[in-house]
Amino acid sequence: MELLAVSVFGVDRPGIVFRITEVLAEANINIVDIEQNVIQGIFTMFIVGDISGCTLSVDEIRERLERVAEEIGVHVHLSPFEKTDQKEKRRYVITVIGKDRVGIVRDVSRILYSHGVNIEKTTLTARDQLISISIEVDMRDADVEEVKRRLKEEIEQTGLDVVIQPYGIAKEEKRLIVFDMDSTLIDAEIIDELAKMAGVEDEVRELTSKAMNGEIDFETALRERVKLLEGLPVEVMEKIYDQIKLTEGAKELIESLKKAGYKVALVSGGFTYFTEKLKNELGLDYAFGNELEIKDGKLTGRIKGKVITAEEKARIIEEIARKEGIRRENIVAVGDGANDRIMIERAGLGIAFNAKDALKEVADGLISKENLIGLASILKLPSEFKKRL
Asked: Where is the signal peptide (predicted)?
């Protein structure tokens, strides 16, 4: 097979594709690959054609294409080449999210180049001041796990967020998304707010920190913290809920997810009083939490039923997936602490949101507190403006 590359660019207008491909067809050139886009009114097209059975010389093809290009107001360039043998690719999709600024593409491409990663395709999506850059890469002979670790570290240091997925997983249509509640869907730790009202803030905060960092097991820490709340009036929970703020972008994101047909679940180590209210307020499909025992209008300091540990979170998600007929590859999990580790590891796409180091290690991607809405771009939700780089 003898190949010819044809690149075309100019101001977009009707008929460009037809006029260029008409010349190739008349010369008996078979198109084996084509990619065409319009960016900000500028037309670009790249064609690879097989000229083995061509009835014209390359110079004659160039002459005809240049004549047509002049007529329709575009530029054309030809380049004969030989197809080289390619190693089997190890393809990944890297998505970088952050506030728009000069130099983002340069900074990211420099990091990838320094690790020997080949960039094959780049797409930029803008959503208000937030942009996401989707980069399809070939990891080639690189140590993939080491590259992923260093990419997460280095891109985070540039003030950007990053998600790294195997190509096959990234192209899987996601159908279920599961959020943690505290410091993920809401900008608060409910247990800490309850502790303030009970006058045991310092004791509870210390136990919370140890649990989130994986220093003590979640169930033990939770039961010890709840014990400190004994005697707190139920009315306090209503006051706390009224003061809670959703994480920036959470409401818009969930609305977009629902419109796109996602099942949206809240699976939390927090409390059912709050998870149920959020379910109703945001229109979630599922909500799970721990139930506080109440007697005579006050907290007893005990939890009713099974505690939602990391293992229980993962089990609940598997149960939802079975009920909805959803495969693991089609699940997204978003959380911030050690109690989210198992669900993050098992999901098709696991996101560490404003997370502790223990979770960053196992997550596919890192998203900072102000960029939750960036998930809309990663999941290719509607209402986005795209341009090819």
From this structure: none
The secondary element (H helix, E strand) that includes residue 32 is: strand 30-39
- In the sheet with 286-295, reading across from the earlier edge strand, the strands are 298-304, 286-295, 263-271, 176-179, 331-335, 349-353, 365-367, 161-166, 91-99, 130-138, 118-127, 385-388
Angle between helices 235-243 and 272-282 (to 10 degrees): 40
- Which region among 22-26, 107-111, 263-267, 350-354 has the lowest average model confidence (pLDDT)? 107-111
8 Å CB contact between 16 and 10 = yes
Give the mean model confidence (pLDDT) for residues 282-298.
Answer: 96
**All domains in the chain, ordered by first residue:** 3-80 (3.30.70.260), 91-171 (3.30.70.260), 176-200+230-385 (3.40.50.1000)
pLDDT score at 315? 96
Judge contact between 245 and 188, C-beta under 8 A.
Answer: yes
pLDDT at 85: 58
Alpha-carbon span 56 to 327, nearest angstrom: 53
State the average pLDDT over residues 15-33. Answer: 95
Centroid of chain to Cα 224: 35
Residues with a known catalytic role: 180, 182
pLDDT band of 343, cuts 50, 70, 90: very high
Categorize the per-residue pLDDT at 74 as very low, low, confident or very high, splitting at 50, 70 and 90: very high
- Band of the pLDDT at 387, cuts 50, 70, 90? very low
> What phi and psi, each to the nearest 5 degrees, are found at residue 123?
-130, 135
Integer angstrom CA distances of residue 278 from 19, 60, 69, 182, 336: 56, 68, 59, 12, 18
> Under a CB-based contact definition with an 8 Å cutoff, are residues 36 and 21 in contact?
no
pLDDT of residue 212: 66
| pLDDT for the residue 364 | 94
Burial bucket for residue 341 (CB in 10 Å: 0-12, 13-18, 19+): buried
- Quick one: DSSP state of residue 139? -
| CA distance linking residue 226 with residue 235, whole number of Å | 16
Q: What is the pLDDT of the chain when averaged over all its residues?
A: 91
Give CA–CA dist 317/347, Å, rounded.
Answer: 9
Give the torsion through C-alpha atoms of 206, 267, 153, 165, to 10 deg. Answer: 170
For 379, the token pair is 């999941």
Q: For 169, how many CA atoms within 13 A lie in the half-sphere containing its CB?
A: 19
